[in-house]
Each structure stands twice: as structure tokens, then as C-alpha cells.
Target: L,D-TPase catalytic domain-containing protein
Amino acid sequence: MVRAASQVTRSSVTRLALLAGLALLSGACRDYTDMPLTEEMFGSDEIVQAEGLHDPAFATDGPRVRFQPAQLPVISLAPGQERAIGSVLNVPEAMRYGEHVWNDEGVPPGKPWILVDLKAQTLSVFRGRDEIGTAVTLYGVDEKPTPTGRFTVLAKMKDHRSSLYDAPMPYTLRLTGDGIAIHGSDVRDGAGTHGCLGIPLEFASLLFQQVPVGSEVVILRDASASMKSRVRAAPGALS
Model:
């Protein structure tokens, strides 16, 4: 787990949505960078993190929390489209800005996919049904919300640089033709983005290595509210 200076505290306050992108530049993917956020944008100087998938009531001494087959949380993506969660990483405390958790030990092979929970302010990567990484993510303000839904990683650019802002955007995973993307960023208190999901650089590098082009990315306003079943089994560590 990587620590930073400013803690993201838990709260039931609803998080702000992602920004939509700016105009398409020369037929290429739109470029984004971090931008300062003001108190007026949030209506408060507190930036909060809800529990989302990582409920502290089910913390364990092991590296992850498992669910019994009959009690798997099921994320509803769309009518008739669901994903079951087999296990999540053990995150007993609210993460700080710039912090991430990564542990794929004991997780069997599987197809990677990404879940973004805007309310919890987290981005998680799964291998099959098992979460292998999670981090606090930056996003934008509500004037230009990014549509929620299902996306596909269309392209990967390890050393991408924004031509619009002349800023580095390392480990970019482009999600749409008009520019929504995930990339490495300076994830700090009081920062946001012009539309992308900004994640810690080390986490972005790991994500870039694990997630191939064609992988699914699900962006939800509130992952907990999208669960059909939230009954959890007794926690335990994977061997």
C-alpha cells in the first residue's frame, strides 16, 4: 500500500461525477491534464470517499475478503447484463490521495476488467471475479459529467503527452474515440482532471501491464447501489 500526505475520509456524501471531454483535436483523441479545483466547485472543502466495495465491517487479517458462491455480490451493468464479484482486496481503512493497493497472489488466470466507482472515488481492476488492484482516482466537476456505462480499452499509449496542455499523460488507456481515458497522474488533494480518470503513477504502470486493448471498463455512479445482492460471507484470507 502506498501512502500520501492527505487522507481521503469516508463519508456518505455523494461524489461528483467525471468530466466529459473537450473538443476533438485534429481527428485525434482529446487530451486532458490535471486542473486545480476550487471550494465553489465542490460546495465544500472536504473531498470524501465512501466505502464502495471495501466495507470496513468485513476487514480481515488476510490480503483479501472472499465471498461464498451463494452470496456473491453481483454488479448490474444493464438489464440482463451482470458481473459477479468473487473477492475484493482487504482495505480496512480509507485510502489516501496517491495511495493504491495491489495484490494478485493466489488469484487464478482470468480476463481483466476495470470497475470505476464514482461515489467511492475508486478505480479497481479485476482478474475474472477477483479484485487485484484498487486506487483513489481523480475526476472532474459536475458541469461536464462523463457518461457512465460500459467502455472498451481502444488503445494504449505508454508515453503519451497532451498536445493541448503540453502535459505528460503516462500509461494512457483510451476508452472512447472522442477522448475519455485513464492515465497516470499526480493524485493529490485539491486536484481534478479535464475529463480523464487520473490514477497514481505506479498503479497506472501496473494497470497498463495487466490490461490489454479490448478489455472492458465499467464506470458506475455508485457501485454499491448497482449490486443486486449485498449479502456478504464471513471474510477470510486466500491461501
In short: Residues 76 and 226 are 5 Å apart (CA to CA). The first strand starts at residue 9 and ends at 10.
